[in-house]
Amino acid sequence: MAKQIIHSEQAPAAIGPYSQAVRAGDTVFLSGQIPLVPGTGELVTGDIQMQARQVFSNLAAVAEAAGGDLGDLVKLNIFLTDLAHFPLVNEVMTEIFDEPYPARAAIGVAALPKGAEIEMDAIMVLGD
What domains can be seen in the chain, in order of their start residue? Predict the structure, then answer.
């Protein structure tokens, strides 16, 4: 099965040796996004909800470049440096997604790239 590299100028450029996403068949693996503003490469300032919205915006841009949208996500991983932010991220998720929600994990981590407080990666399935 051939793989297709996905890239969007509407999302931050990769900050390491990886692709924004890789499509294999109808499955798209979206790399982790932190709350970077496309174009500037600067972290969003503000509360965790503003940061989460930026992360979802970045994921949406990559999903669109792959031919889908956030509604096509089947799995979402959320990495937080402070699990006390978990309920606030849940509130943002209910703004972004309709039921049925994607499968999800929330993981507490010691640190994230560039000092971010939140990162998300996802798996998306196209078709249907």
Answer: 3-125 (3.30.1330.40)
